[in-house]
Structure formats: C-alpha cells, structure tokens
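<instruction>
Derive structure tokens from the sequence
<data>
Labelled lines for chain and fold
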Amino acid sequence: MMAYVLPGAIFLLMLSVGMSLRFTELIARWRRLTWTKWFALTMATFVIPPALALVLANLFHLSLPEIVGLFMLGAAPGAPLLSRNLAQRGFDVHLAASYQIWAALMVPIMLPLVIAAAGLLYDRHIWIPPSFLLRQIVMKQLLPVIIGMLIARAAPNRSERMLPVLNVLGNVILTLLIIFVLIKMGPQLKNLTPFVPVAALLLALGSLGAIFLFRAADEAAKDTFALCNVNRHVGLAMLISGQYLHAREAVPTLACYALMVPAVIIVYVKRVGLSRKSAAASAGNAQP
C-alpha cells in the first residue's frame, strides 16, 4: 500500500506547488542569485545536513540502520511544503516552490556523490545511478509540477480554488501514512536507540541553521529557505534506504524525523512572526 499511497501524496503536493508557480517568476528568481549564493545554497542543502547526520550518528552510537536512516534524511532535500499557510505569515511561496524545483534538479547530480563519499568512510562502495534518481524526480516531482503549471495557466481561477484542497489532502494522507507506519512498526520502535529522537531533532535544527550561511538581503527569503531545508524528503530517503542500501529497518528513524519536522516548523514560524512584529513595533516607535 505504501508503494502507492506515498507517491500519490507527493504527487498531489507537487501538483499544488506547480499551480502556485509562474514560469517567468521562477526564472526571474533564479537569475537573482549569484554564483557565490548558489554555492552557499548547495552546501547548506546537500553537504552540511548529511555531514551533520554522520557526526550525530557517531556521537550517539546509533545502530547501522539508524545511521542509514539519519544520513539519508540529511542527504535527501526538497520535500513538498505546505506553502499556502506560510504565505499568510509572510514567507515567500514562490521562492519555496522555486527551491523545490532546484533541489529536485540537483538530486541526480549531488546525491550519488554524497552517498558514495559517505560509503567510503565505512569502506563500502555505493553508487546510486543518476538515471534512477532522475526517473524518480521526473515522474514524482517535475511531472506533477509541470501539470500544475499548465492547469494554472489554462484555468487560473479554478486552480486557485483547488490549491488549498490539494495541500490539505496531500498533507493529511502523509500524516495518516506516518501514523500507520508507526502503528505497524510498534515493536521495532521499542528497539530504537533512545538518542534517535534527539539526533533527529538536532538534524532538523542543523538543517534549518545551515541555511544562514546563505547571505540573503531579504530576511523573508532566508526564512523561506530555512523552512524548505528542514523539510527533508522522507519518501526519497525511504526509497533509497530500502532499494539500494538494503536497510529497511531505517524506516522508524525516518518516521521519527517526519514527526519532528512539523513541531520545528511551527516553533520557527511563530518565532519569526514574533520577531517581525517586534521589529515593526520598534520601527513604528522610532518614527517621529
């Protein structure tokens, strides 16, 4: 069932991402970034999180399946984000969608290199074919985004009404799927190393903090990138862990992280909202 439900939920979310995008805006936002900023964003997205995952795994002496799960979470970015609610809080939804497209396009390039480098640290030669990753990205992310953009272009009013429905439906399915996995794997969860939730939380915070290496003039852009980066791609991590790393026991670690992310996002969004209100109030008091 998971083989169909998880891709279906991701398809719905990526479809909504496409509906919120305009091709001209997508290109315009990419052109604003310099090569220095692209490099910083690549490091913050594809290098720092998996490196941090390995450090945490060794620090807490996690088991091999737990190491694989935590590392793959760090290595796999670009999960769909519930962008509509964030837009109402001042985050840049178009930038978030652009980030997801960029991360998806970079996955077939960066993931094989990052995983191969990590494998060498454990004296293992691991190579994920870029063609496999490209096929996954095209079918499960880029295709629904393109369909969503075409729908938005052909029927803008209808797509605007469909956006919240698709967002809610996709996120509800993902939540129910995580709950189902946790119930089904109840006995295995008891065997988790007690520090796995701590490591998952620290990885989430580290992924969020890594984005501040990216020096954006716009604070809203930096906050948007931070939320996108903490939202690692659990579905892709699960697929690679089971199919290429032969670590199906990594699923509880993946589920643990998936439960941590909403809490981290909610706390961060509230903190940013309070900071912006405070800054606005200070600016208002400073005016003569």
In short: Residues 12 and 265 are 21 Å apart (CA to CA). The chain has a mean pLDDT of 81. The chain has one domain: 2-272. The two ends are 63 Å apart (CA to CA).
